[in-house]
Input
Amino acid sequence: MVAVKNIARRLGDDISEQKPILDSRLPDGSRVAAVIPPCSIHGVTLTIRKFNGRHFTIEDLVKCGSVDATLVERLNEYVERRQNILISGGTGTGKTTLLNALGKLISDDDRILLIEDTSEIQLEKPNLVRFEARQAQAGLPAVAIRDLLKASLRHRPDRIILGEIRGGEAFDLLRLLNTGHSGTLSTVRASSAQQAISRFTSCVLQSVELPYRAIKTNIGDSLNVIIQLERRPGRRYVSQILEVRAFNAARDQYEFQSGLRREIDPTLSKGRIAMTQSSLQDAPTTAFVRVKSL
Output
């Protein structure tokens, strides 16, 4: 208990019975999280998440099997064409790793504005601006992701990278996309590419009361690509890519262009993956999928 309190104090934070949860960052960039009794039943729980010092590129992800070699050219094209890309997946699927790799594909001439809740993305670019949210501390008010997004356009970014969409900041991001700001990269937690777009919609609804169909229409007009990641024992990989064409208001359905579907085949030897490239439901060109709100 004393050690955890000393860590919190060293980081300019506090942990006590009144505030039993600590979420902060060590000087070397590692994440430190702690929960103390009574919220932690069996005593103090301390977790330190140390990030890999190696910065993976797309080529590195191909070598380790996370990205298929046939996708490299397509991913490069998405970035070069300034597509708005949403990376989705569960916890530990490698969303931040892929986001970092795609960020390396951005031209050095572009001014990049990177916004995170806690600094995790290891991106090295000559014209990079980093913003980080701040939790409320003694005598200091909180600075939310939404506040940083609203301030971002005053700094003339060519591209905005948002570490993760978790709540109401989705509305502010959608407003930026609707005003013609292209080439944005972000992540969201979801179990499928279809659920990712539904999750994005639900996050927008957390901060504003708008007709549900109007929100979906705006997302269909602004979001271009969804990349889904999955995790299996000993492997993390891109399982699906959907290109969002539009939202069909008459059918209340999103229109997706053919993408990647990559699945583990149980008939193959352990660790091998079967991959097919097709549109949803094996339609020849375009698929219409009804996405329900979470």
Summary: The mean pLDDT is 85. The first helix runs from residue 2 to 10. The chain is about 25% helix and 30% strand.
